[in-house]
Write a structure and sequence with these properties.
By secondary structure, this protein is mainly alpha-helical. The chain contains ten helices and no strands.
Length: about 240
Amino acid sequence: MASEELARKLQRRLQWGQAQECGPESASRAASALEPAPEPELPASAPTASAPDAELSAQLSRRLDINEGAARPRRCKVFNPYTEFPEFSRRLIKDLESMFKLYDSGRDGFIDLMELKLMMEKLGAPQTHLGLKKMIKEVDEDFDGKLSFREFLLIFHKAAAGELQEESGLLALAKLSEIDVALEGVKGAKDFFEAKVYALASASKFEAELRAEQEERKREEEKRRLRQAAFRELKAAFST
């Protein structure tokens, strides 16, 4: 009985803490909704629970780590890659999302250790077990031991910003993946400046094609107008 009572109290405390992560308004609602009725105090002689609930204990430990600054709270807002990574084009994000889903064989929205192992083998840069764990740890913001799509994009953000060590497995991942992304996004451009030139050239070509189409439509319209005028003249000649 003492074990169950302690578990309920810990669960209420944990729920209040999780609501507090999402803002004061959520915390106040959670506090009012979860406020228990007055309960009798446990007798001083009541034994403490050894393990009332393994999952509850793990969650409570995480809450304590967050309070002490040893862990980061989970993000409550909806992740939008286009606003959080504005330096990436929509095409690039779509390409990286396709790559992420390709290796997310579990279809759970995460790339775990074994899926990352398969990815690195496919990319031609196999890693040791410790190397894979180190790779995940470099961008694992919520300390869950796997990569979310946001953390996957963070790899390429850090690589572009020069924040990854040369020997880092993540840098190898970004470099090897960049080949495919470049082929899809900028048709093999080797660096930013070549990509920029290609983009400008593509834009100019598109504008030239658009102008040519507009000129062609004008010529066709003029021909049609002349044919109609000739027909009207011919019709008038036969009518008189």
